[in-house]
Design brief:
Domain HTH tetR-type: 7-67
InterPro entries: DNA-bd_HTH_TetR-type_CS (IPR023772), Homeodomain-like_sf (IPR009057), HTH_TetR (IPR001647), Tet_transcr_reg_TetR-rel_C_sf (IPR036271), TetR_C (IPR011075)
Shape: elongated
Oligomer: single chain
Radius of gyration: 20 Å
Pfam families: TetR_C_13, TetR_N
CATH architecture of the largest domain: Orthogonal Bundle
Protein name: TetR/AcrR family transcriptional regulator
Keywords: DNA-binding, Transcription, Transcription regulation
C-alpha cells in the first residue's frame, strides 16, 4: 500500500515561490527551480496553485500585501503629501535593501522583458506599476485640495518624477548600491516638492 503524500504548508510554499520569482524573475524561474525550492513534485504544485503563471500572480499579490505594502501604509498614516512622499521613498529603500530578502521591488524587476507567449504577465505587471503611479499622483492632488500643497502644483509631473525615482531605487538596490547612498538621493530629490509645500 502506497504511503500518503506528505502534507505541506501552502503559505510557506507560496512564500518560497515568491522569493524565487523575486530573485530570478518570471521567465528566469523554471518549474524545475520551483520543484527544488518548494520540495514538491510539479504535479503537486500544479494541483495546489494551478499553472506557473497562476502561482506567479499569487506570489506577486503576497508581495504586495506583505513587504510591498509600504506604500499603502504611508498613504494611510502620513497626514501631508510631503510626508507621504518622503516616507514612501525611504521605506522603499529599507525594503529593497533588506539583507534577508531579495533586492529591489518584485513588481519592478520580475518581468521587464518577456517572450511573446508571456505578454500577459508583462502587461499585468505594467498595470500594477501604473497603479502605483496613480496612487502617488492622487495623493499629491489630495495635498492640493487639502491645502498642504500650493494651488499651482502640478501633481502629474511631480507624481511621475517620484514614481520614476521609486522604480529607479529598485534597480539601484538590485545593483548593490549601498543603502546610505540611496537615502542621500532622497535628500537631494525632496526639494523638487519643497517649493510647492504649504504644510510640511
Amino acid at each position: 500500500m502506497a504511503g500518503r503524500p506528505r502534507e505541506f504548508d501552502r503559505a510557506q510554499a507560496l512564500q518560497k515561490a515568491r522569493d524565487a520569482f523575486w530573485t530570478r524573475g518570471y521567465e528566469g524561474t523554471s518549474m524545475a527551480d520551483l520543484v527544488s525550492m518548494l520540495g514538491l513534485a510539479s504535479a503537486r504544485i500544479y494541483a495546489a496553485f494551478g499553472s506557473k503563471e497562476d502561482l506567479f500572480r499569487e506570489a506577486v499579490v503576497l508581495y504586495e500585501t506583505s513587504e510591498g505594502s509600504f506604500a499603502t501604509s504611508a498613504l494611510a498614516e502620513e497626514p501631508t503629501a510631503k510626508r507621504f512622499v518622503e516616507r514612501l521613498l525611504r521605506d522603499a529603500i529599507e525594503i529593497y535593501t533588506r539583507p534577508d530578502l531579495p533586492k529591489g521591488c518584485m513588481v519592478v524587476s520580475a518581468a521587464t522583458n518577456c517572450a511573446t507567449e508571456n505578454d500577459g504577465v508583462l502587461h499585468w505587471l505594467a498595470e500594477r506599476r501604473l497603479a502605483r503611479n496613480v496612487l502617488i499622483v492622487e495623493r499629491l492632488k489630495k495635498g492640493v485640495r487639502d491645502g498642504d500643497l500650493k494651488p499651482d502644483t502640478d501633481p502629474e509631473a511631480l507624481g511621475d518624477y517620484y514614481t520614476t525615482l521609486l522604480f529607479g531605487l529598485s534597480v539601484q538596490a538590485r545593483d548593490g548600491v549601498p543603502k546610505k547612498r540611496l537615502h542621500d538621493l532622497i535628500t537631494v530629490a525632496m526639494p523638487a516638492l519643497d517649493g510647492f509645500v504649504l504644510q510640511p
